[in-house]
């Protein structure tokens, strides 16, 4: 399978999004260095967009990812820095949903 996209919806425990994003952003350079990583970034709501926007909320952020292949994504999931990140943030996360998507 070629190119895959990931949208991960991460909800922090109340009031912990900034601290969680700090740890996320510290891990980004290691992810960018992985084979097959095309793009990996966190996004939050844009303020004052208007009524057509569905806000994700003040405790939530999304991770938008592009990977050259499913194999690259699967290697990312078990990379040592991702295991370290998971251990460091597990008590900050209230909910996590990961959507792995293919071009339509």
UniProtKB/TrEMBL annotation:
Pfam families: ABM. It comes from the Bacteria. This is Antibiotic biosynthesis monooxygenase. PROSITE patterns: ABM (PS51725). Keywords: Monooxygenase, Oxidoreductase. Transmembrane segments: none annotated. InterPro entries: ABM_dom (IPR007138), AI-2_Isomerase_LsrG (IPR050744), Dimeric_a/b-barrel (IPR011008). One of its GO terms (molecular function) is monooxygenase activity. Residues 4-101 form the ABM domain. The keyword Secreted does not apply.
């Amino acid at each position: 399978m070629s190119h895959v996209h990931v949208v991960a919806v991460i909800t922090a425990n109340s009031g912990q999004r900034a601290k969680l994003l700090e740890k996320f952003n510290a891990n980004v350079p290691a992810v960018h260095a992985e084979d097959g990583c095309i793009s990996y970034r966190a996004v939050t709501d844009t303020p004052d967009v208007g009524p057509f926007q569905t806000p994700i909320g003040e405790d939530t952020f999304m991770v938008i990812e592009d990977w050259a292949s499913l194999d690259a994504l699967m290697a990312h999931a078990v990379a040592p820095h991702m295991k370290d990140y998971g251990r460091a943030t597990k008590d900050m996360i209230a909910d996590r949903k990961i959507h792995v998507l293919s071009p339509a």
